[in-house]
Amino acid sequence: MVEEIQKKLQNEVDKLRQVQKDYSKAINKRQQLDGQLNENIAVKKELDLLKQDNDVFKLIGPVLVKQDLDEAKQNVTKRMDYITAELKRMEELIATLDKKMDTHREALEKIQQTFQQAQIKASLSQQKA
């Protein structure tokens, strides 16, 4: 009985650890996306300051290539939209993982209580014998 509960307990701990790893990865990804969004917001602000006759260059590998101002603004806006959508997806994933962690923690608590009760019963039965 006690060994069976120990296996359940270990299994639940392993599940919780995996969810915690996934949660950590999702948090890191969200931070990375936040940084990218902030960079793109800064670029958009700079592009908005330019006049139509100003030159804009895009870095492609080691080469600077001249780019149309409107095209550059559109590219940055599209990138910001994509990053915003990814941020929303990450927030949803983080919320889901948060709920999973809570569920696993609750299950762990129940299993631990059952384990402690089984240990007490086992020790009482050994004392009687």
From TrEMBL:
Belongs to the prefoldin subunit beta family. This is Probable prefoldin subunit 6. The keyword Manganese does not apply. Pfam families: Prefoldin_2 (PF01920). Keywords: Chaperone, Coiled coil. Heterohexamer of two PFD-alpha type and four PFD-beta type subunits. GO terms for cellular component: cytoplasm; prefoldin complex. Residues 2-36, 73-121 form a coiled coil. GO terms for molecular function: protein-folding chaperone binding; unfolded protein binding. It comes from the Eukaryota. One of its GO terms (biological process) is protein folding.
